[in-house]
Amino acid sequence: MRLGVFVQVPGHHVAGWRHPDAVSGGPNLGLMKHIAVTAERGKFDMFFLGDGFATGYGEHPSTIGKFEPLTLLSALAMNTSRLGLAATASTTYAEPYHVARSFASLDHLSGGRAGWNVVTTAYAKSGAVFGRQHPPHAERYAMAEEFVEACRLLWDSWDDDAFVPDKESGRFVRPGSLHVPDFKGKYFNVQGALNVPRSPQGHPVLIQAGSSGPGQALAARIADAVFTAQNDLAEAQTFYKGLKAQLIEYGRTADSALIMPGVFPVVGRTEQEAQAIFAELNGKVDMAQSFTVLSERLGTDVSTYPLDEPVPDLPETEHLKSRAALLLEMARRDKLTLRELFFRVAAARGHLLLIGSPLQIADTLESWFRANAADGFNVMPPFFPRQFDDFVDLVVPILQERGLFRADYAGTMLREHLGLGRPVRSSRSPQP
Known about the structure:
It contains 15 helices and 13 strands. By secondary structure, it is an alpha/beta fold. Strand 9, helix 7 (213-222) and strand 10 form a beta-alpha-beta unit.
């Protein structure tokens, strides 16, 4: 089983920051170091950072004020030695050269532990920050495919053994080791090499987080790991089986990409204690703020609908298509009122919600893993650091005792942790 920690400070629950045990406030390097060191102590595969560009009074507390992800991960690379370091970067509001250079640099700084979460940026309001028109859903995914291809060519600008500084001969790089990309696409053009040596992993690990049709197709083509939202075992099995089949259709093996759903665990020493923690969190929810989060996930302003009636039929969104569909399906399946859906989204935002003792949580993770619904999980604590500390100290040992999770790292690089091979250098770049 693979495990990542999805870090949103002060926590994934919209009211997590209000819990007495939460460390709340803006960017806090000390807390981030604590989480990273705790994850490495728990032998986690990776520390995972989401990202977005929104801020404002009504946003989720974790998005209002935060570190730029690559800057933070570079700092954490100095405090860890094995933990994978993964961050989100947008293919809609960035340039391939900048992203390729940043992640290659992080891979060198960390000794081969970098991962890039490839996202297309769902929300239209992000475009205003950059003075651009937000592209439609399908076009964003077409842009993403070109973007990743350009980055791969840039990462392969140099052979692995290109830099051989020889003071006697005066030769700094081996002749014939430079391969200058000449990429011309509909959205991006790159004619020039990356001024970073080929990174320890060859390419940083590629993570993809879209579960819509275009998102799954992109994942099947480019992803090493897939972060998805699933909250029903049968639906998770269907997603898992379908995506593994798509990998094979694209000439890959079924184990060449790992599927890691998000899990929101509320850990108590007993189930009663866990339920009390969850009730306390829900009792402190800011209704206006949570409605902003729910409306964003559904792509429609739902603040005007009756709270205690069934979730209404809503138009299809151009934003988080797969997440909106998942939440509406959950509402229909579980016969939820809008108020009940509201509280679920305030917590897990459509991911697997587990409330219980360490044994109960471990049992569910094991059942999903053994049932071919997941290769592992991205853990989303309701608040930090206490709930993540408890997961590492109470749940992880049970998984280790059952032989489901490693007792120690077998390698030093993220690709080694995930059981992934090192990419062979692309032959598409012309050699001068």
